[in-house]
């Protein structure tokens, strides 16, 4: 499962249209192991069509494709998994629908919620925002590396840190116990998404080499 999750999750939005697909193609070519389709305020058909195109870019390269929020769309296009937010289907309900082979991620901010999601069947957790970010409105206060650490130490599934992540901040998150990071603007809004992906992957590799396996840092 760790291989399927990878260390870098590149999020893309259906509202970005063709430009978003170009960024995904560049990220995949640069070695991004996971691409997550996020779509806010669009029709089901737009999301389905966009996810289908993203999966077509991911599949030949062996890249894991996840769909944010919508387990029905993830299953319809044949994506590897679904990431669920706090207001989406409960993890246990999504697991009943998707079955045991479908990757399911939950969203947590504290150890108690994290343990609950894992008990319900979450394969990994998205935790954040790590730092303040303008990518998404209405987010709670940033957790910082110590907030990430508190969740990572409470569960035995991979924790993926999100929110305000840059290559320069990766090491702090890995030391805190994050198994990987998820980014939106750091790749999709970069002048060169491929180069940005390479930089993030290099930062993850260097941080991993210094700290050992996720969770083994001080």
Explain the overall architecture.
The protein has helices at residues 2-5, 17-29, 44-58, 71-77, 91-98, 111-120, 144-152, 170-175, 185-188, 193-211; strands spanning 8-13, 34-38, 64-68, 81-83, 103-108, 124-127, 159-162, 180-183. The protein is α/β, with parallel strands linked by helices and 218 residues long. Strand 6, helix 7 and strand 7 form a beta-alpha-beta unit. Helix 2 (17-29) runs parallel beside helix 3. The chain is globular and about 40 Å long. The model is unreliable at 214-218 (pLDDT under 50).
What is the architecture at the second tier of CATH? Answer: Alpha-Beta Barrel
Q: Name the shape in a single word.
A: globular
The CATH superfamily is identified as Aldolase class I
Distance between the termini: 25 Å
Cofactor: Mg(2+)
Family: Belongs to the thiamine-phosphate synthase family.
Domain Thiamine phosphate synthase/TenI: 17-187
Keywords: Magnesium, Metal-binding, Thiamine biosynthesis, Transferase
